[in-house]
Structures are given as C-alpha cells and as structure tokens.
Design a protein that fits this description.
By secondary structure, this protein is α/β, with parallel strands linked by helices. Helix content is about 30%, strand content about 20%. The chain has a seven-stranded parallel sheet with strand order 8-4-3-9-10-7-11, sandwiched between helices. Strand 15 (about 300-305), helix 11 and strand 16 (about 320-325) form a beta-alpha-beta unit.
Length: about 375
C-alpha cells in the first residue's frame, strides 16, 4: 500500500465517502441518508438501489428472501474480530436497530445506480490508497445480501452499517433480539432521519415568508396510512375530524398534510370537513413539500400512530406531539408507541387539548447517537471520518 499522509494522518484511515444501499422505499432510504448527514458525509454519497421484482406472480413472492426471489445466492458475510470488555467477539461491523419503520421523503438525488456488490467492492479496493475506506450504509431486509457480499469481497476496505433489524444472526447481519448482544449493535427508540439542527434551521429560513406570519399556535397534522401492524379505516378519519373541530378554538391555524399512503377515502373526510375553513390549510401535494418547514415552524403536532418516521422526526424537535390511532397498533408498532409514552415525548390526542398550553420533554436524538456509535466503532478499527 502506498504511504500517503495528510496533516500527519494516514489518508487511508479517513472515510470521506459513502455508498447508500437503498431498497426503493423512502422510509428506509431516509434513515440511511440521515445517518450519512449526521456523520458529516452529506453530498459525498451515492445511492445504489436493489429492487425486488414486482407485478404478476411477484406480488405473491414478497415474503421470500430477495436472494431466492431473484435467484441470486449471496456470498457469506465476512466477520471482523476485535476486543470488547476483555472478551473476543466476532462482529460484522455495526448494526443500527430501531423499533419500526415507515417514512417520508428520502432527499436523495435522482442519480440512482444498480446495487452491484462486486462493482462496489472493486471500487472500494481500487481507490482505497487514494480515497481511503468506503462507508456502506444499507437499510431494509432486501439490502442485506448486497451489504454482506460487499463486506465479504472487500473486508479491509469497507465499513458496513446495516440499519433496521436484519432478522438473522447479528454476527452475520442480524439476530432477532430485544437486547444488544454486543457493542456492534445500537438499539434506538425511533427511526433515523434527516431532521437535524442544520436541516431545521435551513427549513425555518426557507419557509419563513410563508409560515412565520401565521397566527399562533400553529398545529401541524401529519396523516400516514393504515399498515399491516397498525390497521385502521375511515372511522379514524371521522374521529380525527371531530377532535380537530374540538381543538380548533385554541389554534391560530392548522396545516394538514397527507402521505402517499393515505387512502383517498380518508383524506376525502378531512377535505370535506375543513376544505373551506379559513383556519385550516390542507397541502394538496402540489408544489414544494412543506414537511421540513412544518417541523421547523410548528408549535405542536398531531400524527397518526402508523408513521414511525414522522413521529421520530417530530419528537426530535422537543415540541408537543399528540398521537391518534395507537390503540390499533400491534407488535413493534405497539412497543414503539408504549416507549414514546413512557418517556413522555408523546401524548394521546383526545380532542380536549388546549393548544395554548405547551409542554416539553427531552427530544429524541437517535440519529446523532447512532452516528456517535459509528465513530466509536470506526476508532476501534483505527479509522475516522
């Protein structure tokens, strides 16, 4: 290896670039790019996407591992040895696990490459002497074969972070457990995201002319859509409409946003109820997305329980967050809701709230904490960012 030094530091020991392995779902990719931002690598990442075959009989095979679905047999994951608390353990790198998934806009560029493990590994090896190690950040079950293969093919040149619980042995990419089996696992309460201090400050500036003059308090309502483990129908929409009517007297204004998953029959209820109300603005999906502006400028939030990403983002602001529909959640969605309420970062939306009365809590800081753990793990290897 060529001996190259910069400022007294061996250049090959510094990570200055990242590859994001995406699965085509904004919620998963948003988490990866959020971690990349928190690590200071924003703008120095490329997106490589693996997509599951869709349409026809493929819709019946979604439960199969992608490796079988696409008849692709991945290479086994390479294992990395190092010392933790005096005991020798075998680790893949670092796995960030959070309670549930969902999401908002990923913020990634439209320049998307194919997730070819061999090409990425070869690039990491060939450019290592000049550009240093490559950080690989992947999120979602379908990305595991690719990230594992990259680690196997270029173990000395890459550092792999797998976000979301892989549901297989963690030393090779995951183990279904509620407790971290080693220091290579970070358990976070919420989803990783991009709504950090800098992003919110920029959004506040960008949206100042439109949102700053609005009457206060400003209540933002974010509506997701029913999920397998958080199922609901139009009844929730009717209940939400009635509750919002009850608290409208205490709001300077209300701004409502729907996600791409919101059923039309549910959004139609809110449109009919508030479409002509001068206090209420409903974003129709046209023009620039106000989501980051809402996070930066809102005084309080009401969010449907299915949307873990939107809840995680809102709970990172320290502003009051009210949840509707938590009683419909099961499995990890229910655990997530319970954890948020136990920490006091959310309260159930009842329709009896006075929005003039604010409350506070210690904001969630999962993305920054995960980034800190990544840096610690890199330091153990002798690398830095």
């Amino acid at each position: 290896m060529a001996e190259m030094f910069q400022g007294g530091v061996h250049r090959a020991s510094r990570i200055r670039r990242a590859v994001v392995i995406g699965n085509g779902f904004a919620g998963a990719e948003n988490q990866s790019i959020g971690l990349v931002r928190a690590l200071g690598l924003w703008g120095r990442q490329s997106l490589h996407r693996v997509t599951r075959p869709r349409g026809g009989i493929n819709e019946w095979l979604h439960w199969l591992p992608l490796s079988l679905h696409r008849k692709f047999m991945p290479l086994p994951a390479e294992r990395t040895d190092f010392i933790v608390e005096g005991k020798k353990v075998e680790q893949l790198e670092l796995i960030v696990h959070f309670s549930a998934e969902n999401g908002s806009s990923s913020g990634l560029s439209s320049d998307v490459l194919e997730a070819d493990a061999k090409q990425i590994a070869e690039m990491a090896r060939q450019t290592f002497d000049i550009d240093g190690p490559l950080l690989v950040v992947a999120s979602g079950r379908d990305t595991i074969p690719v990230s594992s293969a990259i680690k196997h093919l270029a173990p000395e040149n890459v550092f792999v972070v797998q976000i979301q619980h892989p549901r297989s042995h963690l030393n090779r990419g995951g183990l279904p457990t509620r407790e971290p089996p080693g220091s290579n696992v970070v358990l976070t309460l919420g989803a990783l995201h991009q709504a950090d201090f800098t992003a919110l400050r920029n959004a506040a500036s960008s949206w100042h002319a439109e949102l700053a003059p609005l009457p206060r308090p400003l209540l933002v309502v974010n509506i997701g859509g029913p999920a397998r483990n958080c199922s609901y129908g139009v009844d929730l929409g009717k209940r939400l409409a009635a509750m919002l009517q009850n608290v409208l007297w205490s709001c300077g204004c209300v701004r409502i946003s729907f996600s791409r998953r919101t059923p039309e029959k549910l959004s139609r209820i809110l449109m009919k109820e508030f479409g002509t109300n001068p206090k209420v603005y409903i974003w129709d999906g046209e023009g620039r997305n106000p989501h980051m502006g809402h996070l930066a400028c809102a005084d309080a939030f009401v969010i449907t329980a299915d949307s873990v990403s939107m809840l995680s983002e809102a709970c990172s602001t320290g502003k009051p967050v009210y949840v509707i529909g938590a009683e419909h959640c099961t499995w990890k969605f229910a655990d997530f809701q319970n954890s948020l309420q136990e920490r006091g970062v959310v309260r159930p939306f009842t329709g009896k709230e006075d929005m003039f009365k604010s409350w506070s809590y210690t904001p969630l800081n999962d993305t920054a904490e995960a980034a800190s753990r990544v840096k610690m793990a890199l330091a153990e290897r002798g690398w830095s960012i």
